[in-house]
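Hi D.,

Good news: the full-assembly prediction came through. Inputs first.
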Amino acid sequence: MQAVYANSLSKVYDGGKRAVDNVSFEISAGSIFGFLGPNGAGKTTAIKLLSGMLSPSAGSCEVFGIDPALHPEKVHQIAGVVTEHAQMYGSLTGLENLMFYASLFGMGRESSQSAALGLLGELGLADAKGKKLETYSTGMRQRLSLARAMIHSPKILFLDEPTSGLDPESALSVNNMIKSLAESEGATVFICTHQLRYAQEICTSYGLIDNGSLLALGSLDELRELVFPGMRVSIKASKMAQGMQYKTTGEMLYEMDVSSEQGIAGIVSQIVSQGGSVYSVMSRQLSLEEIYFALIERRNRKEGPGNA
Amino acid sequence: MPNSKQLAIITKDIKSIAKNRRLFPILVFMPLLMSVGIPSLFVFIALYSPEELKDFEQMLQMAPTHSDDITTMFIELIINSIMPSFFAIIPVMASSVMAASSFVGEKEKKTLETLLYSPLPLKEIFYAKVMASFALSMAVSYAAFFAMVIVVEIELLLAAGIFIMPGASWLSMMLIVSPSISLLAITVIVRGSAKSQTMEESQQKAVFLVMPLLALIIGQFSGLLLVSAWLLTGIGLVFAALSALFLKSAMRKFTYEKLLG
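Then the structure:
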């Protein structure tokens, strides 16, 4: 089932800035989709378009078949949104905040209290439930925002930089929460972030964006296919075998690309047969970060140095 | 009638202003000054410095009632003709403080966007906030009115053994002018809320409503005109029509994009 559909979606602000430019994608229900790019790439604008806060300048989008520009409140009923600018009330406690937002979703007092207490516990905020939000740290606020977005068990979560300002432990609990929401409850998660390493840990599919335009779409393997599907091998050896293509990355450290694991054995045997000693061999596939920069470089080459 | 989701917003807005250490005292002391302090001052002048009343001779000539006792006549004039104009400042102030906190305050504290992500249509959120401001303004106005009646009557009874009933002008003031001027002040704040970035900036816009009230007060003291029940009813009806018109047009112009802009 399709959760999100965007067709040639564009948004041009009053000042003329083209924040989202002719973007098309589809996200299937239950997936964790990472919309990735640097600050100012158009990620937050995309969330605002999908949640109906902004109307598209051109194109259209749908969330579970609902057009957010026409029926934003219907999208809000099935969606939870966390953005930097969506804060909660400092004069209310964590529990009061969650219960207030639950009441806006039509939840009764008892069900909202039990849902709020459950989320506070899962996000490590049980001890702070009675404290006013103004006393919360940045990380605690971020986790409470996540709890607020999840209070009505949404079908889809739109999260803008969900782990920004979180310490590693909190980030881990947030990640686990997002994963379990997608796995056990089948919720769809749309994550915007510039932290590509973080995204690689949690997302199942990706959309890479820069300057409002999509660079690529797909799973990690599909994105690797676009750049280099093989493996990058790092070798520590006394010397490299002649006739090989490699890059020196340090003293006795070399790096090269191979199409499969079978190629690694050939490299090692060539070094040894030419009298060299191999101390360590590590192989890995391209990371999301490497793919992203490779795609940016490719696009800049296409556009020419003037546009780079 | 507001639905349960709107009621949640109204309750939250009223609770939040009651907890606000900066705004709540304004909503208590300013109305007390206008409704109890100023009339008490006039009562004391009339009772204990009757010679000062000569300064108000021109105004007294316009008085609708002509009692033999100049002191009683003066107090009656103050309570039923002069005080309603002073009193009108209370609903303007209360509703503008509340509306600024409810609309622009949420924007300032970055809580508006979160509220807009709720499943309530924008129109329902808008009306819930208008209703919260209106309810608080009416509560403050009625509390101030009853405080004035109780305190002034006790003062008059104890000091002079007289009892002066609030006249028909108060009926117009409490039933027509206070509600309509509250709505008008809310409308002024709401219309400017999309452009205002801070509560203070937004509240300044309500000053435009206080200006004609001040002109009315000055007009009375200078003997130019005297407020009557008919005049107040007329003003109230004009305000009611204006606020209904402005509210509808303000709502039409409201979009998520403009509110968050």
